[in-house]
Write a structure and sequence with these properties.
Elements: E1 5-13, H1 31-42, E2 46-50, H2 51-57, H3 66-74, E3 82-87, H4 97-100, E4 105-109, H5 111-118, E5 129-133, H6 140-149, E6 155-158, H7 162-170, E7 176-182, E8 209-216, E9 219-225, H8 237-250, E10 263-267, E11 273-278, H9 289-294, E12 308-313, H10 326-333, E13 337-342, H11 352-355, H12 358-361, E14 365-368, H13 373-377, H14 381-384
The structure holds NADPH dihydro-nicotinamide-adenine-dinucleotide phosphate and the ligand Nc1c(N[C@@H]2O[C@H](COP(=O)(O)O)[C@@H](O)[C@H]2O)[nH]c(=O)[nH]c1=O.
Keywords: NADP, Oxidoreductase
InterPro entries: CMP_dCMP_dom, Cytidine_deaminase-like, DHFR-like_dom_sf, RibDG_C, Riboflavin_Biosynth_HTPR
Function: Converts 2,5-diamino-6-(ribosylamino)-4(3h)-pyrimidinone 5'-phosphate into 5-amino-6-(ribosylamino)-2,4(1h,3h)-pyrimidinedione 5'-phosphate.
Length: about 375
Amino acid sequence: MPQPYVLLSAAVSLDGYLDDTGPERLLLSGPADFDRVDQVRAASDAILIGAGTLRTDNPRLLVNSPERRAARVAAGLPEYPLKITVSASGDLDPEAQFWHTGGEKVVYTTDKGAERLRTLGLPTGPAGVDVVCVGPDLEWPAVLDHLGDARGVARLMVEGGGRVHTQLLQQGLADELQLAVAPVFVGEAEAPRMFGTGAYPGGPTSRLRLVETRPVGDVVLIRYVPSVPGTGPTVSAADRHWLALACELAAECPPSGTAFSVGAVVVAADGTELARGHSREAGDPVAHAEEAALAKLDPTDPRLASATVYSSLEPCARRASRPAPCARLILDAGVRRVVTAWREPDTFVPDATARNAVLAEEGAVVVVVPEYEDRAKEPNRHLVG
Ligand SMILES: NC(=O)C1=CN([C@@H]2O[C@H](COP(=O)(O)OP(=O)(O)OC[C@H]3O[C@@H](n4cnc5c(N)ncnc54)[C@H](OP(=O)(O)O)[C@@H]3O)[C@@H](O)[C@H]2O)C=CC1
Ligand SMILES: Nc1c(N[C@@H]2O[C@H](COP(=O)(O)O)[C@@H](O)[C@H]2O)[nH]c(=O)[nH]c1=O
């Protein structure tokens, strides 16, 4: 299984805090928003919190609505989503409600943390806690890989706290951010902030993409998705969004029995969409997606050198209908990163993938994200079965 879709969820004060410094958890959401959060939980395979939140809030992290739990069971899912926490220290209270309520639980920890956890007497047995040791340090990609592969988690809701949200966002691993902005001021320098200091993808000039705003009682729900491409071979959450868009564009191509339907998007390093295109665009019966997108750009645009081309099918390296194949157009444009869902089958060109090695041979990084292959193939079923 691929890594899960990672949804960061939090309520935040107008001055950017997650909580105050008092002993009780600060309720920033109102009743309507807590109900919305319950709905998001019910739609998730797993809910993750950092050990800091576990220690401070003593949460239960349940789906509170009996109807939502019943709907999960009717759909063949466990009554409660899997609960997950992460801790390097292993310094966790075995009496915390987290361990004694809801369904299955996992704690991801380090070698040192695992030693400490063994001494705590956490609930064991079939309904007990699964302690997963990931080595000397806890790296998020390893945790997400494990959640996808070993636990089959497709949709992960992360409910804080600030350190966990900050790391996932800074490492380009968050697919979506759901912020409930509450009409409250905390005003305490020592209170936990929603996001910490450090480098965020694309820096302060790059903007996340707004997908929704909605009043929920007196708070406002804001949903953003990150837009900054990954670097080199590393696939960021934003890479998956752009590749999904390329696959959607492929579905817009006029059908053909003699050519693939492909979509492409060119995205600058700060997450700005520069151009998009699809096969046979604007009535041109032989236009390719990457060619159509690049044709919309000024070839001297300085952003091209650090841009990423997303293409549902890997760019062609040989074609009869035009003098230059798309791989050549991409290299000539100065682009050095390509993300694609589907290696070219030999339907129209023998040894297509071997020929397509030209991109890598001339210094471009080609990243294949096979979890999107089915979407890329969908408008081409009549060609490849
Ligand atoms: N308003 C809201 O919606 C929410 C508010 N909150 C608030 O946030 C506050 C807690 O946030 P915060 O203090 O930032 O804590 P976090 O919940 O982010 O937990 C941080 C802890 O998680 C573990 N951890 C995090 N990243 C790693 C890593 N890469 N490797 C190993 N361990 C890791 C460490 O545990 P360890 O120390 O054991 O090694 C670390 O101390 C609370 O006040 C809570 O009320 C929390 C969630 C939502
Ligand atoms: N304070 C706060 C949140 N806090 C989150 O809710 C968790 C507790 O949930 P439960 O176990 O159901 O009581 C807590 O650990 C933290 O992750 N969430 C929000 O949407 N809005 C809020 O104002």
